[in-house]
């Protein structure tokens, strides 16, 4: 099947039948989610920083952003979550191969490694089609076990 089929019509087409892609999948049994880490990729750095220059605060399209090392690699900086931020081209050029202090610049927010659970929550739709979710949400609301005082 192709990603296009899922996005276009919410169906997966096979040779012999057409399968509707569910809006909600209910796990009937699970213990704990295994610990995961957020991969250190350009896409995830842009996502962590919300496509926003961490120096001037402008929100831009991905292709209008660069990645910048807060402490330049040539000055001992590392390729880590804590040292790489989104920056617009003009802020990146202004900072150049200097430290923040030398360039007279400040970060809007100190960069940090994202927490996997928080990061994954942000990828869920903010406005799903509630009509499709209603049955699931009703069941979850009415059937969840309440904590009983002892």
What does this structure look like?
Monomer. Binds crRNA and tracrRNA. The protein has 150 residues and is α+β, with helices and mostly antiparallel strands. It has a domain at 42-116: DNA Binding (I), subunit A, CATH 1.10.30. It contains six helices and four strands.
Please report the number of helical segments.
Answer: 6
Order of helices and strands: HEEHEEHHHH
Structural class: alpha+beta
Structure summary, number of beta strands: 4
CATH architecture of the domain at 42-116: Orthogonal Bundle
Ranges where pLDDT stays below 50 over 5 or more residues in a row are 1-7
Put the structure in a nutshell.
This protein is an alpha+beta fold.
What tags apply to this protein structure?
DNA Binding (I), subunit A, two-stranded antiparallel sheet, 6 helices, alpha+beta, disordered N terminus
Which helices and strands appear, and what pairs or packs with what?
Elements: H1 3-9, E1 11-13, E2 18-20, H2 42-48, E3 65-69, E4 84-88, H3 89-95, H4 100-103, H5 116-121, H6 130-143
Antiparallel strand pairs: 1-2, 3-4
